[in-house]
Amino acid sequence: MLKTICYKSEANSRLELMDFEALFNQTQLKNDSHNITGVLVKKGDLFFQILEGNPIILDTVYEDIKKDHRHSKLTELLNKPIKQLNFKSFDIGYSVIKDTETLYSLQSFIKTLQDNNVENSDFFFKIIESLLEDN
């Protein structure tokens, strides 16, 4: 059985560029080591993350995320079982998105998921679209 968790939150305004780089590296290493796929998007002061993987591991990781001081106002958007990993083939596993060009690549990837009627793809596409509209 697999699961996906998706949330958005606000970045701590006191964080500096080096703090974000450390967060991105830590997140990528941790998720890769736990076979978690998905994406972390930072757009302005907003974080948006999709996590996929083993439900027990995801729930543990998510509890740690909720307690992390580097963000606040966490809003859970999705937390449910899934049939397959959808983001495993996007940039090979787990990805961090910090720029608009890569966000457009993610939008294109999700559009392909939509075209193949992959679960939750319409939901993810709307969120990515709203992030791009905020440019």
Automatic annotation (TrEMBL):
According to the lineage, what is the superkingdom? Bacteria
Which InterPro entries does the annotation name?
Acylphosphatase-like_dom_sf, BLUF_domain
Q: Which Gene3D superfamilies match?
A: 3.30.70.100
Q: Where is the BLUF domain?
A: 2-93
Recorded protein name is BLUF domain-containing protein
The beginning of the lineage is: Bacteria, Pseudomonadati, Bacteroidota, Flavobacteriia, Flavobacteriales
